[in-house]
Predict the structure.
Amino acid sequence: MPEISGRGLSVVIVGASGDLARNKIIPALFSLFCQGYLPEPFCIIGLARTAWTDPDFRNQIEPHLTCRYVPDRQCAEKVRDFLGRCYYVSGQYSSVDSYLTLFQRMQQVEQGGPFDRMFYMSVPPFLFLEVARTMGNAGLLACGDQTPWSRVVIEKPFGRDRASSDQLVAGISQIFSEEQTYRIDHYLGKEVIQNLLVLRFANLVFEPIWSSSFIERVRISWKEDIGVGERGGYFNEYGIIRDVIQNHLTQILALVAMEPPASFRSHDVSAAKTDLLKAVRPADLDNWAIGQYDGYLDEPGIPTGSLTPTFAAGVLQIDNARWKGVPFFVDAGKGLDERVTEIRIRFRPTECCRAVEEAAGPLPPNELVIRVQPDELIRLGIVNKVPGLEMKVAQTWLNLAYKSAFQTLIPEAYECLLLDIMQGDRSLFITRGELAASWDIFTPLLHDLEERNVAPAVYAFGTRGAGQTHASTEEQ
Ligand code: BG6
């Protein structure tokens, strides 16, 4: 159980009528509440433009609360208790008056002692700075990381390229200190991603073979079988490289490839990640293919003739001693044939077993597959003799499927991240250094695509994407 601060907690969600708040943030807070992880007293105050009252807000939230942590899933009482602590203020994001109203409301509902305050910006990224400045001008924020604390949470994408990201970081830093700022990439809260450090550094068998001497190539792959849906307006501004590759997949790459950190403390882990990201050669358009699913232009909110990619696949090279010459294939796409995120580490073919090869034909290589979702698993492909009188070999899997191995519920990424924010644990959040280094990898590619008006190849919805790059043609 977490340390209880002895203070209350207010969670202010700016943009509370949106999908992220209803589908992710508030359900995650409810799950934490059901498990006893929220301090007492606590309250949630939503701010958004929609003209809702408290009961409207509660009605909107209720269908999204799930009872998965409550015995027998009987949680009507918990739901009632939780909803009774949810309040709503209707206002404009850039109006000081709206924040003053919010502030009054906070004072009314924060009863019984000092309250820590978490400000969650669940608004489109172009509003972050304006909202932060207006909140600052309304005098809502405590300074520094004093107690009771004020912390701000922002969601990727942080900017559109290196320069705009730097501007955003500088702008926010005039209002919130770095210690107060939590930059979320929710993939870092996913169970399997959190396990990467443990898997790599707490098992003696992996570290000695984790280099170009033994690893032939790595693939990090992200697929979604749905389109952009109602998020077309947002997505079209950013595209798949900014939406998924520059953040989610680049963070995975950093965790897979970084040197052992001096400790598992956030500062040391971030230093190791940043060093690795700085060693990644900037992505080069010649090594990338981009695509757009057929029908994207008919989605709501997409302008005629949009060139925004919904698919991208390419290769990254890491210029350091450990990884020299090892290609890291990266691919991400919407409207593909399945929903899966996984890391595949392909080891070099063995040279020691000529005799087996002569008897049984070419040997398949060893491969380590780490599946992040939908079914969390880690499996190692080994070459094994097929039982029988003849010498036949085949790739066989040693399988760690989370569902059968762990008789426990796997927490949602947001549950873990929100709890860390409350506890002031910054390990799973993006630092300025990581952010700058990851934009340096993709900014030249993004600028090239836009300056040259590169048209994405159209692919049929529900297929494997576009472009015959190494990544997309590699066998599964
Ligand atoms: C978000 C992207 O960060 O991640 C979305 O903006 C994407 O486009 C989503 O659909 C996927 O998250 P998850 O947790 O469902 O894999």
